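4.2 Preliminary Data

To establish feasibility before requesting continued support, the project team ran the inverse folding procedure on a target of 560 residues. The structure was first converted into the token representation described in Section 3, and no sequence information of any kind was made available to the design step. The complete token record follows.
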């Protein structure tokens, strides 16, 4: 341990990061913060509107989460802030309870952010952050694609100036398609023009901050043409400085109980992205990153954004990689927070002129990043079953909504896990040359049919033990003449539960009744200990022979 390390540095690792800080490091952090702020500012406004709040709520989220996370995280480069995914989830979670009241929407979303933070803190305290990895990559791929499609569908109406009475994004899209005659020409011109400009800038001038350029241009046009006076929806009044948590009395215990499960789902999604972002940074902090600390830091950041009137934040892998390329410490996030605060205090009159259609265009331009077509095609060519699971997840999100779709995703991951554990890979092996390792063979192709060598590549427990027993018995009874010995290669069997111990004892007795002996090869010490004390079927497994490797077992049984 570093003797210079102080208790304060343990609480706030940023202090340690600044120990050898130099002017060159400061310049690197400032430049990184500036390059990230020019994209974060328009995105924050757009995501605030996506969450069903005043657009400035996205900036409150950016400011509060950046300050708290930067002070508590042990990583140098992981960046947190507003995200389109969490904004859409927040909107879905509170919309049905808002009743069209903007103040109540802000209060419920703030409460939701606090609950997400509390779930993260609880997960960190109980060291449950590994649960975030429970969702398989194909399921996450499908879930994010469904969220991206929902985002695209839900922003077409604001882009064209068509008010939609439906909260569901797909229903909104259908309403827009069937009511195109209600489009406001001026709003549609600004919105579609902003979307086209964003796409072209990102395609041909990738180094230009497209979102900021489009926002500033739209503000200038709005001011010059008086778009607000001509009926176009604009951001409107932005209160300077920090918001106050007014409206929290509007949150009842019924509201809190209704938000608990959505908050849990959002905490899971946020944790998954945080794990991904941390891993992108490589190993840090003395060679390792304590993930429960990062989960706790995220939780504290979410609580802070709730206190400021924002929505739950999430780590951003894209912004993290940008920081890794230039930043030297978490000071870059504190600088970003300062920039956001400056904009809130001094730029309110300008932000108020920004057309809402432009924010819709920013959301739509960013949504395709969630729809990883290349990743799906790669999955389709290599793993057809997983690609089907991805498609089912997409359909679940679109059919049931993003929060209910998360439940579908969890169920699919659970089903995928149970299917694989209940039907583990197994194989028949054969021993050939004196110096060759045993290798897999097809059924009926063994050069020594009197000795059957069977391998199972999974721990044995209640979900698969009986299937393994039936599999071995079928192999023995279907072979003519019957083998006189079964060697079980148990290298992958690192655990036996009570059901498996009972079933393995039953298999041993069944084989003995068929005149066939069961022996073990490469069994783990803990598994052998369990079998040596196994009381089932008169302790028949207590007398099983065990060998160090398959070849040794084969040679011994051939000579028996």
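Position-by-position output of the design step:
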């Amino acid at each position: 341990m570093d003797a210079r390390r102080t208790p304060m540095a343990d609480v706030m690792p940023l202090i340690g990061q600044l120990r050898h800080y130099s002017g060159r490091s400061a310049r690197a952090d400032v430049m990184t913060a500036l390059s990230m702020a020019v994209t974060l500012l328009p995105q924050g406004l757009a995501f605030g509107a996506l969450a069903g709040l005043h657009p400035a709520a996205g900036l409150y989220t950016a400011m509060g989460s950046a300050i708290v996370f930067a002070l508590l995280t042990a990583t140098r480069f992981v960046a947190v802030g507003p995200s389109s995914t969490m904004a859409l989830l927040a909107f879905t979670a509170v919309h049905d309870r808002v009743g069209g009241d903007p103040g109540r929407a802000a209060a419920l979303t703030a409460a939701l952010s606090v609950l997400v933070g509390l779930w993260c803190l609880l997960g960190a305290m109980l060291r449950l952050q590994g649960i975030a990895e429970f969702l398989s990559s194909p399921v996450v791929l499908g879930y994010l694609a469904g969220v991206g499609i929902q985002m695209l569908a839900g922003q077409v109406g604001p882009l064209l100036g068509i008010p939609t009475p439906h909260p569901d994004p797909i229903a909104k899209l259908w309403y827009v398609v069937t009511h195109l005659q209600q489009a406001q020409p001026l709003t549609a011109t600004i919105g579609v023009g902003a979307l086209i400009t964003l796409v072209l800038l990102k395609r041909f001038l990738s180094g230009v901050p497209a979102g900021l350029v489009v926002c500033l241009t739209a503000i200038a046009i709005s001011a010059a043409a008086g778009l607000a006076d001509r009926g176009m929806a604009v951001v409107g009044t932005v209160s300077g400085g920090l918001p106050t948590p007014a409206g929290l009395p509007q949150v009842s215990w019924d509201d809190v109980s209704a938000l608990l499960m959505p908050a849990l789902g959002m905490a899971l999604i946020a944790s998954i992205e945080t794990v991904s972002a941390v891993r992108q940074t490589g190993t840090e902090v003395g060679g390792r990153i304590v993930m429960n600390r990062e989960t706790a830091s995220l939780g504290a950041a979410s609580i802070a954004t709730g206190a400021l009137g924002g929505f739950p934040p999430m780590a951003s892998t894209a912004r993290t990689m940008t920081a890794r390329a230039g930043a030297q410490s978490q000071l870059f996030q504190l600088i970003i927070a300062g920039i956001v605060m400056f904009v809130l205090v001094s730029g309110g009159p300008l932000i108020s002129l920004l057309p809402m259609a432009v924010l819709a265009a920013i959301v739509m331009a960013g949504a395709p990043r969630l729809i990883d077509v290349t990743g799906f095609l790669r999955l389709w060519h290599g793993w057809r079953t997983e690609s089907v699971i991805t498609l089912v997840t997409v359909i679940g999100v679109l059919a049931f909504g993003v929060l209910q779709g998360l439940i579908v995703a969890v169920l699919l991951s659970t089903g995928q896990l149970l299917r694989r554990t209940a039907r583990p890979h197994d194989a028949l092996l054969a021993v050939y040359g004196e110096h060759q390792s045993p290798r897999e063979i097809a059924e009926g192709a063994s050069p020594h049919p009197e000795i059957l060598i069977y391998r199972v590549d999974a721990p044995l427990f209640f979900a698969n033990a009986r299937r393994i027993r039936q599999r071995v018995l079928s192999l023995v009874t279907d072979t003519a003449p019957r083998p006189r010995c079964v060697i079980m290669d148990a290298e992958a069997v690192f655990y036996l539960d009570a059901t498996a111990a009972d079933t393995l004892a039953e298999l041993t007795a069944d084989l003995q009744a068929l005149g066939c002996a069961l022996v073990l090869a490469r069994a783990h010490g803990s598994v052998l200990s369990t079998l040596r004390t196994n009381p089932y079927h008169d302790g028949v497994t207590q007398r099983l022979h065990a060998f160090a490797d398959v070849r040794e077992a084969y040679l011994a049984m051939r000579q028996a």
